[in-house]
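Shipment paperwork, digital attachment
Item: protein structure file
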Amino acid sequence: MENLSYSLLSNLLYLILVGGLWLAALAVVTPGTGALEALALGAFVLAGLGTMLMPFNPWALAVLLVGAALFGLSLWRRGDGLWLGLSALVLSLGSVFLFRLPGGGPAVHPLLAGLVSLLTVGYFWLMIRKVMLAQGARPALDPEAVVGQVGEVRTALDPVGSVYVAGELWTARASREIRPGARVRVIGRDGLILEVEPLKHEA
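Attachment content:
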């Protein structure tokens, strides 16, 4: 009965940890308001507290760090799916074996571990890699050509977020907070960051 309680708790903590890894990866490759970072940190804190409630494998923490390092390498080598795939596999391995039963052995159910690991690899390969490739590609439109055009805020500008202008998603900055869905006009650019202001009737 005690092992069952430990197993249920470890499965829950495992899902929280993996959710934190997913959120952290997405936060690194996409601009935002800090919400993703806050959610990821909260998940890591909960998973960390879990290590105080039940036995864990210290070596699995080292494996997670290796996975994080591989993810950092994949950011440096944008578009190279090898390092991203390896990071997903290593992070999955570390998270599966982080928690263990008091008598020894992994506490995460094998079926749950296998399913979530496959989803993690797919998430990193399909979503995170797609975002990284999109950010590494040169814009199809000359940045100067978007000055004066009107677009829509996709993630809140506070002051930096993203806007959809001329058929593309851009990183943008505003002098004050602008909520998602608002229409803005591009008034300038700083490198590939657009300077925008809300339309007068939406100010």
